[in-house]
Design goal:
- With 217 residues, the chain is an alpha+beta fold.
- The chain is built from six helices and six strands; from the N terminus they run ββαβββαααβαα.
- A hairpin with a 5-residue loop joins β1 and β2.
- The longest helix has 52 residues.
- The termini are far apart.
Length: 217
């Protein structure tokens, strides 16, 4: 299930809104909320628009839209497609409500905390992934979650890993390059077979005939 939600501005990481969690959740999620703030500091205009970050028993899923980052902390068992559907609903409502104010320089942290009312209402809808409505969302082919970048929090925070699109593009290019090399090797072998395969088979057949004649006679 969705454990907590934070909304922040991409340009400077300013928190704009968040879910009002109970004391137990605050205690359990304190470390992961700190990690979320660290993620906000790493974001920029070149960052991946959607990403899942693994940390302990949770995933931190985020969605970037119109200069705002929508992030939720979820149990690992919670379907990713539902998590991003949830974030998508938040992004549409938040921008419709506060879109003209988001980039104002005078904003204070959590300036739109009243948005928690909508967060809590939407969160309740997504609490049980087995409800008919959520099963329908899972079956809708709105987003291919297999294409969403997945990172490890340790790599991200302590090894300097990047959230930029360019790092993902570089990884994809390396993969495509390896596929190209394999395809080239296969094509070269096929070309060699077409060029020398038949003559080689004739020569081997001729040698075999001579060998058999020598053995038998």
């Amino acid at each position: 299930m969705v454990k907590s939600t934070i909304i922040a501005r991409v340009t400077d990481g300013l928190p704009l809104a968040a879910s009002m969690d109970d004391e137990q959740a605050e205690s359990e999620l304190a470390e992961y909320k700190s990690q979320a703030k660290a993620i906000f500091k790493k974001l920029n205009s070149q960052s991946e628009p959607v990403c899942s970050i693994e940390s302990g028993p949770y995933y931190l899923h985020y969605l970037l839209d119109q200069g705002v980052c929508y992030l939720c902390i979820c149990d690992k068992s919670f379907p990713r497609k539902l998590a991003f559907s949830y974030l998508d609903e938040l992004s549409k409502e938040f921008y419709m409500s506060y879109g003209s104010e988001i980039q104002k320089s005078i904003l204070r942290p959590y300036a739109f905390i009243k948005f928690d009312t909508f967060i809590q209402k939407t969160k309740r809808i997504y609490e049980d992934s087995r409800t008919q409505q959520n099963m329908s969302k899972l079956n809708e082919d709105l987003r291919d979650v297999t294409q969403i970048m997945t990172k490890n929090m340790e790599d991200l925070l302590w090894r300097g890993d990047s959230l930029d699109r360019m790092s993902t593009l570089s990884y994809q290019l390396r993969g495509e390059s390896e596929k190209y090399r394999k395809a080239t090797r296969r094509l070269n072998l096929e070309a060699l077979y077409r060029k020398y395969g038949i003559p080689a088979a004739i020569i081997l057949g001729f040698i075999l005939v001579i060998y058999l004649r020598y053995k038998l006679f």
